Amino acid sequence: MSQKKSLAAILLSTTVLAVPAHAESMKRLATVPLDAEVTGLFEVGSDLFFNIQHPNKEIGNEFAKAAVGVIANADWDAAAMEPTTEDADKKVVRSSLGDYQVLLQEGDEGIVGVIKSLAGEDLLVSNDPDFNAYVPTADNEGYLFTNWENRPGGMSRAKIMRAEDGTWSVDKSDLIMVDFSAVDGTWVNCFGTLSPWGTPLTSEELYFDDTVDWNNPEYKYIEDNQVLANYLGEGKYPNPYDYGYIVEITDPAGAATPVKHMALGRFSHENAVVMPDNKTVYLSDDGSSVVFFKFVADAENDLSAGTLYAAKVTQQAGAQADAATTGFGIEWIELGHASNDEIAAWVAEYDGIGLDDHVPGETNYITDEEVAAFAAGEAADARVAFLESRRAAVALGATGEFNKMEGVNINYDAAKDGSVPYMYMAMSDVSKAMSDGEGAIDVAENICGVVYEMELDANYDVSMMVPVVAGYGYDKDAEANACPMDSVANPDNILVRANGQVVIGEDSGNHENNVIWLWNRDSQS
């Protein structure tokens, strides 16, 4: 049976979607201080790591600084926590899981979150910790890697140890920021995952959609590029095609060497999650009018070469259907095959281009004509697929209409043994191209966001995404909590537990205090 026929059969046979969760099937686990985002959800044994990103600096307590921390011996069976309403409670971490222990904060030891230029000059102190990954080196000790989400980006590595009572300590003598100089730095290190072979995969969230204007002195975001130029120094203007990739930290307990996996495509990476075949990777793309990607490596445990695909979706309901109940069929369109080395050679062709080379109305980078030639099968090579992955995907018929696509994740062991054969993706804000009355996706706005479930088949492929958690009741005039306090508001981080529970962290301006929620699939009718 062809893939197209298979999808049609699925669409015809699927008449009832999972009922999306509202307040009755969600459990509030924690809230973070005013203005803080929940990031870095990562489970180690019975302990839950998460971060307090960019808290309000005026709250007047220890949580006025961004923090990386942990709840040891988390009590997942505890009762749901009531909403945060008291002023004092709005300024701290509250949780029914247990006590939150701060391990690291921005600026600690003059190292944590401190982004330096290649010449060693301080550029900024980040208050944006994101992804966490724990790499064990012995019983009850290992390295905690944490992203710092800035332009240029960073990643800290801290040696941490666990006592019998669950208290963690940090060896301040073994604390570094990962050296990204060999790859000309990184850009907005966002969410990530730990690979099945034990290496952190950090994501470059390249919020720069218009590469054609990368060296345009009049472009609205050109200051970001100039900061990156300051990082590089020596009058070097950055090559846009050096940024926007998944970066693997090889030898994490040793040299912690970064490798940019250009073969996984260039776009605004939120996250990459490797399936239990250790070859298939799903990749989320954050921003407006974005694409859902898949990569299949040539060899297990090796992301340096493979084939990149993009999703073409078919909406399962009519125009302006409720986003909380509307799923999408998925077909995969092949974009191309390449290796890191091949792509690096293409990237090098754009080295040495600076602001002085820009000509108004023209571009020094890949043109629309080159994208069209690639889509027509007339290009000399596959560079468009890997250097302009979104443009290539849309040109070949994939769907480029998703909005604010955030974390995508599985539980590796449970997916491998088949006990939890599901992948989850957070769509923080269903609006814009998803709700504009045009294209393949046209659902009603859901500003509070939706979490989608995708069932994995025996080959770890997915052919359907259905909403299982959906926000509701958005009220733009409700200043503190535009999404009701019993509704999810702008889901971002996703953690899937071994028992199938899904932990959801918010990145929201629609809740005064962002929330960590627990959703249990078994509670759904």
Describe the protein's architecture and organization.
With 525 residues, this protein is mostly beta strands. The chain has one domain: TolB, C-terminal domain (Neuraminidase), CATH 2.120.10. The chain is 11% helix and 36% strand. A hairpin with a 6-residue loop joins β15 (246-250) and β16. The longest helix is centred in the N-terminal third of the chain and has 11 residues, at 3-13. Mean pLDDT is 94; it is low at 1-16.
By CATH reckoning, the class would read Mainly Beta
Could you name the ranges where pLDDT drops below 50 across 5 or more consecutive residues? 1-16
- Count of structural domains: 1
What value does the Rg take, in angstroms? 22 Å
List the strand order in the largest sheet: 17-18-20-21-22-27-26-25-24
Largest sheet: 9 strands, antiparallel
Distance between the termini: 32 Å
State the fourth-level CATH superfamily. Answer: TolB, C-terminal domain
Mean pLDDT: 94
**Class by SSE composition:** mainly beta
Indicate the CATH topology.
Answer: Neuraminidase
Tell me what the CATH architecture is.
6 Propeller
Which overall shape is indicated by the principal axes computed on the Cα atoms?
globular
- What percent of the residues sit in helical stretches (DSSP H or I)? 10-25%
Total of DSSP H or I helical runs spanning 4+ residues: 7
Strand content: 35-45%
Topology, number of strands: 30
